[in-house]
Design goal:
The structure is a single chain. The strands form 3 sheets. The protein has a 3-stranded antiparallel β-sheet. A two-stranded parallel ribbon has the order 1-2. Strands 5-6 form a two-stranded antiparallel ribbon. It is globular. The chain has helices spanning about 1-35, 40-45, 55-75, 100-110, 120-135, 140-150, 155-160, 200-220, 245-255, 265-275, 280-290, 295-300, 305-320, 340-345, and strands at about 95-100, 120, 165, 170-175, 175-180, 185, 195-200. The longest helix has about 35 residues, at about 1-35. The chain has 14 helices and 7 strands. The protein is mostly helical and about 350 residues long.
Length: about 350
């Protein structure tokens, strides 16, 4: 059991190192935006790429896999004791935060993020998409799907043209690519609910058609040098993308776009929040994101935008009748609304 505990202690140590490196990268990128010096860019290039810490929920899945493997070993008489059965890992649910103007101002002043999971407003998401349309047109379709449909990076990397139906405006999520220690493997989506049909908007269909034409032109140009991976989103030679490449490119593009920082995975939160603001039914949001339960969608993946919350507050207030008109200066009132008030006016 001590070895299992030590393993999770080392994971936490690695998390500290990952977060420190991510913080250093963000601080350098912030300085480069203000003073794009060559020395700073060289310093940034020497830092490791952004990585996601292995948080509580992922640690719980690691522990569950280890328990299952050791139970199999016991059944096969390869072991007599399951030490993982006596270890627990706490999973703290992190609530996403919206990048409000106040939080953006603080981040620009200090370089610190208010929380580990941040969500763009519609304006910020639009700023990012406008930037990639100009500076990363070859992958504009990828960023559009990721932003509006919340598709996971492994699902984007694993998406094949045979899984698309652009006439029907849908994508079939049937496979994903996973990457461990720079080794990429193909497998099923994260859960049974991950196998799903994702509907596309008209702009998404247009961008994917444009992307397919561009890919076909590159295929013709390269001839025998073209790698026939069958993937929708590929390297310029047709070979498949690494999931980590998508994350790294997103970090660079979002920094260059001048929008506040979020992780690539946070685009799933952005997509959920945009759908919620557009009054999309929560069940539809769940199925679009590929969640196993509605609770996951409602608890963790839908943040309420300030303007939506304000509109709800005003709508709630408006259904309550009031005797006096609100907002009048002291000593002034609206017209009398009760018999007692009318009688008082007559006596004056």
């Amino acid at each position: 059991m001590a070895h299992v505990v030590e393993m999770f202690n080392r994971i936490e140590d690695d998390n500290d190192a990952i977060e420190a490196n991510n913080s250093d990268r963000r601080a350098l990128e912030s300085r480069i935006r203000n003073t794009p010096k060559r020395a700073l860019r060289e310093q940034l290039a020497e830092l490791p790429p952004y990585r996601r810490p292995v948080r509580g929920s992922s640690q719980q899945r690691i522990l569950a896999t280890l328990r299952a493997a050791l139970n199999d070993a016991i059944r096969q008489q390869l072991a007599t004791f399951n030490p993982a059965a006596h270890v627990t890992v706490e999973a703290t649910k992190v609530r996403p935060l919206i990048w409000t103007s106040e939080r953006v101002e603080q981040w620009r002043r200090t370089g610190l993020r208010p929380g580990p999971v941040m969500v763009w407003t519609p304006e910020q998401a639009g700023g990012f998409l406008d930037h990639v349309a100009e500076h990363d047109p070859d992958y504009e379709a990828l960023w559009h799907v990721a932003t509006f449909r919340g598709t996971r990076r492994g699902e984007l990397a694993g998406l094949g043209w045979t899984d698309t139906n652009l006439d029907g405006a849908t994508l079939q999520i049937l496979t994903q690519l996973t990457e461990v220690d720079y080794q990429v493997t193909e497998g099923a989506p994260k859960s049974a609910a991950g196998e799903r049909t994702v509907s596309l908007d008209r702009e998404g269909v247009r961008l994917l058609r444009q992307h397919r034409r561009h890919q076909w032109a590159e295929r013709q140009r390269l001839g025998s040098l073209w790698v026939e991976s069958g993937r929708v989103f590929t390297k310029p030679d047709g070979s498949e993308l690494r999931p980590s490449w998508i994350s790294d490119r997103f970090a660079r593009l979002s920094a260059a776009a001048g929008v506040p920082p979020i992780r690539l995975h946070d685009l799933r939160h952005v997509a959920a929040t945009l759908m919620l603001a557009a009054s999309v039914d929560l069940k539809v949001i769940q199925e679009t994101l590929g969640h196993s339960t509605l609770a996951t969608t409602s608890d963790l993946y839908t943040s309420v935008l300030p303007e939506v919350a304000n509109a709800a507050a005003e709508a709630t207030r408006s259904i309550v009748p009031r005797r006096k008109t609100l907002g009048h200066p002291s000593g002034t009132h609206g017209p009398p609304t009760t018999i007692a008030e009318q009688r008082g006016d007559a006596l004056r």
